[in-house]
Design a protein that fits this description.
Elements: E1 7-11, H1 15-27, E2 37-42, H2 58-65, H3 70-76, E3 80-82, E4 84-88, E5 98-102, H4 115-121, H5 131-135, H6 138-143, E6 163-165, H7 168-182, E7 186-189, E8 192-197, E9 203-208, E10 213-215, E11 218-221, H8 228-233, E12 238-240, E13 249-256, E14 268-273, E15 276-282, E16 286-293, H9 300-311, E17 321-324, E18 328-330, E19 334-335, E20 338-340, E21 346-347, H10 354-368, H11 374-404, H12 412-418, H13 425-434, H14 453-462, H15 479-499, H16 503-512
Parallel strand pairs: 1-2, 1-11, 2-7, 4-14, 11-20
Antiparallel strand pairs: 3-6, 4-5, 8-9, 9-10, 12-18, 13-16, 13-17, 14-15, 15-16, 18-21, 19-20
Helix pairs in contact: 1-7, 1-10, 10-11
The structure holds flavin-adenine dinucleotide (FAD).
Length: 518
């Protein structure tokens, strides 16, 4: 067995497979024969999951690293701009109950924290201004259906931070074409039917039906829920988290726009239901809508009815796809010479679109820290496992945060979610801290959090939580700074409303003219 890592075999051609293969090939110049060879094997029989349409701003960095033009991506994946999420009916279920988790940080966040001042202003003439609207100009942009930039902004540049909504099926095909034409990846369309080990337990090769054995030094398991290498072959245990997050089913549907000029929301809309919530993602050519629910708290028939009520009469012509959700993750993600990325590593309900961002972060870690030798791989694997175990646990906490402050009483789903037995100790500790101050970056031990302190502030205060600053009046000793930031936010709202085109207008222009290249 050669000690040097020369060949990486990625099994699975969904979004996870192509992003990981592409990032490794781009970084290690696989289009040159002397460099790392990347082989991607995918089955023609097992379809990709074909949902997963909400992303994080990290996707811009991923596309740039892959050498992809934003214009091409938007045109070919029918992508649109996403500027955060609007959570409707999560607090008490009433008609005007909503809050935003925008992608722009609170104004002046790097220099100071506006949360204590926003709390204080709730007593005066500014009472009633939501936290996100007081500290960030993005909620107003979203409420008006505006884009985060103009056609003159250029590729990947922004006026307001943004991610994308994308057509998942088109995205993996687009990535495949790019990876094959530009990045020198070898593509094998075949079914993996067996895994062959070396004596030391490392994977030596995967056996396929028509193409024989495919050998490699590092194997990346991107086989989706099947988790053929890490789960089936290595039997790495799956850690369930359905005692914390109760969602276990999704009903997904693709909804056409009423007409070709219908507005395209520039944020994901997540509307709470009796026993779950409905996502609504506006792409350029259609919407992606789905109801995720807990089967312990409602029936499939009731959930289907909720989805039908949400979508309206158009539902009768649409096909609804049921997807079971198994909440949790593997006990570890890198074992011997095999690392799992994507659904093969685990999955949590898509409330904050955390799956693709984990794929991107995993792919980045692997390509940046690709071990040169088998010995070094053990060190990299240990670090990968520590980093990603922490990330999964933090994401579970962050998703649970959305539920535990709800005052809804329409179904046991909500009271069960508030039951302290269902709340991880790590989150209970944080909630104790935040009774007297707002979430801050030093509450987190990683300097590379998937969801930073600002995200926790948006959700906490959006859900109506109040931190009590009476014991720390010194946190309110710089009103000059705070008032400047509040005024700046108001000014930026006015500027943005004048300057920005609608999301649809910009997307139509990109289809027609494209952005100027970087
Ligand atoms: C209801 C739902 C909603 C979601 N929403 C979001 C969202 O809004 N945002 C987000 O970030 N993520 C979301 N996700 C997650 C997202 O869809 C996935 O993380 C993403 O698509 C990556 O999937 P994958 O590539 O890991 O798996 P898949 O797309 O399932 O790909 C698996 C690949 O493995 C191949 N394969 C399987 N078995 C074999 C075999 N024996 N031999 C060879 N090849 C094989 C298949 O052919 C396929 O190419 C959602 C998921 C679900 C279920």
């Amino acid at each position: 067995m050669s000690n040097a890592i020369k060949t990486v075999v990625v099994v699975g051609g969904g979004t996870a497979g192509w992003i990981t293969a592409g990032r490794i090939a781009a970084k290690h110049q696989s289009n040159s024969t002397t460099n790392i060879k990347v082989i991607l094997v995918e089955s023609a029989k097992v379809p990709t999951i074909n949902v997963g349409e909400g992303t994080w701003p990290t996707m811009r960095k991923t596309l740039i690293a892959l050498g992809i033009r934003e214009t091409d991506f938007i045109r070919e994946c029918d992508a649109s701009f996403k500027q955060g999420a609007k959570f409707a009916r999560w607090v008490d279920g009433s008609d005007n109950d909503f809050y935003y988790h925008p992608l722009v940080l609170p104004q002046g966040f790097i220099k100071g924290d506006l949360s204590p001042y926003w709390h204080a202003r709730q007593q005066g003439k500014n009472a009633g201004t939501s936290f996100s609207n007081a500290v960030c100009f993005q909620e107003s942009i979203c409420e008006q259906g505006l884009a985060p930039k103009t056609i003159r902004s250029g590729e990947y540049r922004d006026i307001a931070n943004y991610a994308y909504h994308l057509d998942s099926g088109k995205f993996s095909k687009f990535l495949q074409k790019h990876c094959l034409e530009k990045l020198g990846i070898t593509h094998v369309v075949d079914d993996v039917v067996d895994v062959i080990n070396h004596d030391n337990g490392d994977i030596a090769s995967v056996a396929t039906v028509k193409s024989g054995k495919i050998s490699g030094d590092l194997f990346v398991d991107c086989t989706g829920f099947a988790s053929i290498l890490l789960g089936k072959h290595y039997q790495i245990p799956f850690i369930e988290c359905n005692d914390v997050l109760f969602i276990d089913n999704a009903l997904a549907v693709q909804v056409p726009y009423e007409d070709e000029n219908a507005p395209i929301a520039s944020h994901t809309i997540s509307t709470a239901q009796e026993a779950g919530w409905i996502w609504d993602i506006g792409l350029h050519h259609r919407r992606g809508v789905g109801h995720v629910y807990s089967s312990n708290h409602t029936s499939e028939d009731e959930a289907t009815q909720r989805l039908a009520d949400y979508v309206g009469p158009a539902i009768k012509d649409l096909s609804i796809r049921k997807i079971p959700i198994h909440s949790g993750h593997r006990e570890k993600f890198w074992h011997k010479n095999c690392v799992a990325v994507g659904l093969s590593a685990g999955f949590l309900e898509p409330l904050e679109a955390s799956a693709l961002v984990l794929v991107e972060l995993s792919a980045e870690f692997i390509c940046e820290q690709l071990p040169q030798t088998r010995q070094v791989m053990n060190v990299v694997a240990k670090r990968f496992n520590e980093t990603f175990l922490y990330r999964w646990q933090k994401i579970i906490d962050f998703l649970k945060l959305h539920y535990l402050l709800s005052k809804r009483t329409d179904n046991k789903f909500w009271s069960d979610n508030r039951d302290p037995q269902s709340i991880p100790e790590s989150l209970q500790e944080m909630m104790e801290l935040w009774r007297y101050r707002s979430p801050a970056d030093f509450d987190f031990t990683s300097n590379n959090e998937v969801f930073p302190a600002a995200s926790y502030q948006y959700v906490l205060y959006g859900m109506g939580f109040k931190s009590d600053y009476t014991l720390s009046p010194h946190l309110l000793n710089d009103w000059d700074f705070a008032n400047k930031q509040f005024s700046m936010t108001e000014k930026m709202i006015q500027q943005a409303l004048q300057q920005l085109p609608s999301n649809r207008e910009l997307l139509d222009k990109i289809k027609q003219y494209g952005f100027a290249a970087l």
